[in-house]
Design brief:
heterodimer; A: 102 residues; mainly alpha; 75% helix; 0% strand; B: 172 residues; Four Helix Bundle (Hemerythrin (Met), subunit A); 7 helices
């Protein structure tokens, strides 16, 4: 079997790419894409741990399903907020959305 | 090494190129629409990973929810908001270099830590026969995890109503 470490490294790389997208992109939708990448990395970790450490219990898969549920809800609400903001400001550049900054 | 193991390694390598390549495409692509398509490629790679990890149900869920719903939703949002579609403009803010360094640093730290930990991997015998029963997964969801399951359904309902209210055109 493929060593567990390989899976964890791939998940860590995916997480860091997502983190970079969240920190560096200007467009709010691109930031959301980064968050989705990070959630995918976490799910990959959960499933890899299930397969290699507790293959008899199904806890890892159940948790991955809950994470996917939350990701779907978050994407729907997030994109609705972006569309609403776009309608009000004409832009979803996160650098220009500083109305609430003190 | 037996032939099916070699095939597993090759498939893993191809999926890694797909997933990480897609993710890098998301980050560096200037056209947001291309970013969204790269995101689909990355999600498809993760579907392959789940199949390789014997999690068939999760592979189907990933395909349906991430590629079928979330990626399409993102494509719609990209097309509805055309503010930053100008390709001559940089898509990254001024702190991109620091962000890249932070991400790289976290990756290196994670890689070192993950390498040093002695993972309590299950015995060969247990690894050879994982519990892949979907019906038992359903029983787990409606048995020990019934409260989170119901909370998740309420969460989805709230998200549904909230998204509709937020995105609706306001009259006046």
């Amino acid at each position: 079997m493929i060593p567990l470490y390989w899976w964890l490294i791939v998940a860590a790389a995916l997480f860091c790419i997502g983190l970079y997208a969240v920190l560096s992109r200007k467009n709010a939708i691109a930031v959301l894409m980064g968050i989705e990448l990070m959630l995918n990395a976490v799910n990959l970790n959960l499933v890899a741990f299930w397969r290699y450490i507790t293959p008899q219990a199904l806890t890892g898969q159940v948790f991955a399903i809950f994470v996917i549920t939350v990701a779907a809800a978050e994407a729907a609400v997030g994109l609705a907020i972006f569309i609403s903001v776009y309608r009000m400001h004409g832009s979803i550049n996160v650098e220009k959305l500083d109305t609430m900054r003190w | 090494m037996p032939a099916d193991q070699i095939v597993r390694y090759i498939v893993f390598l191809i999926l890694t190129v797909m997933t990480l390549g897609g993710a890098l495409g998301v980050v560096v692509s200037r056209n947001l629409f291309h970013s969204a398509l790269f995101l689909v490629l990355s999600f498809a790679g993760v579907v392959g990973y789940y199949v390789l990890l014997d999690a068939g149900f999760l592979a189907a869920v990933q395909l349906l929810i991430y590629i079928g719903a979330i990626a399409i939703l993102i494509l719609f949002a990209v097309m509805l908001t055309r503010g930053l579609m100008d390709k001559r403009q940089s898509q990254h803010n001024q702190q991109w270099l620091i962000a890249a360094l932070v991400a790289l640093l976290i990756f290196v730290v994670l890689a070192v830590v993950l390498w040093q930990v002695e993972w309590p991997v299950a015995s060969e015998q247990a690894l050879a026969s994982p519990n892949v029963s979907v019906s038992q997964l359903g029983q787990e969801l409606l048995g020990p995890y019934v409260i989170p399951f119901e909370v998740a359904s309420v969460l989805l309902l709230v998200a549904l109503i909230g998204a509709v209210i937020l995105a609706r055109e306001t009259e006046s």
